[in-house]
Amino acid sequence: MPTPKDYNITEFHFNKEQIRILSPERYDPLTVLENDTYSFTVKAWDNDNNKYVLLKKVFNPLSSAYDSKKIYREIALASKVRHKNFRCSDVLQDLKILYTSFALNL
Predict the structure, then answer these.
(1) In total, how many domains does the chain have?
(2) Do 102 and 53 touch, CB atoms closer than 8 A?
């Protein structure tokens, strides 16, 4: 699979699984924090803002109406949260890949 311009592919091994994340160049993925049945979450460094962020990759976000609604609700709720340590900053999507990135102060 060719890498889109201005994106990087990073590979991780987590719980005996190989995980590949496609992320914009501004992010340096550091470690996988969580892996569940429909997504995984990665701690990354945002080079533009000099902050840690969480990148979340959802597998097959449009595979069913149920999953699509669940993901939409999560993004809608995250975009409404108002807290100094939490900010829904980017949503990048196409038919196969969905990422959300959140500011994270550690």
Answers:
(1) 1
(2) yes
- Per-residue tokens: 93: 């999507």
28: containing domain: 7-104
* Assigned domain for 87 exists: yes
Per the rule left: phi > 0, alpha: psi between -120 and 50, beta: everything else, 86 is beta
Listed in sequence order, the DSSP H helices in the chain are 65-80
Rounded Cα distance, 95 and 63, in Å: 9
The pTM for the full model equals: 0.65
* pLDDT tens readout for residues 35-60: 887 788 889 998 988 988 888 887 77
Which one, of 93, 105, 95, 103, lies nearest residue 24 by Cα? Answer: 93
Q: What are phi and psi of 7, to 5 degrees?
A: -125, 155
